[in-house]
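User: structure tokens for this one?
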Amino acid sequence: MTEQRTFTSHSFQQYLNEHKLMASRCTECGGVFLPPRPLCPSCYSESMEWAELSGKGKLAAYTAVYVGSSAMIAAGHDRTNPYLSGVVRLPEGPAISAQIVGVDATHPEQVSIGVPVQVTFIERGEGEAKRAYLAFEAGNGR
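Assistant:
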């Protein structure tokens, strides 16, 4: 049984830092939601629980990003070193956007919609500022 944490972005980040992909599940209708939320948007129940997801999925959409956010620029991405951002459909139902790794972002045409992906976590920062970021690795979602 998973410890009870509030359904906030802070709690979601805590789970990411523990290398766990967690969603909220409605105990009334069974809906699974990512990012997690305290209220079911399907049946409006507040009866939610944490559920750890398999971390497997399929790439539903993606784009190569050549001009990224300041955080991605700080991570070394720029016009000569792009990164892929994608939407991953998980077998539990939800879809989530994340960085896609394990592929050459300078040749995004080599990536295919529907390719299997597996969750991974990218650590950035040091000390108290260290945190894990959600990513999916292409080709390892079998």
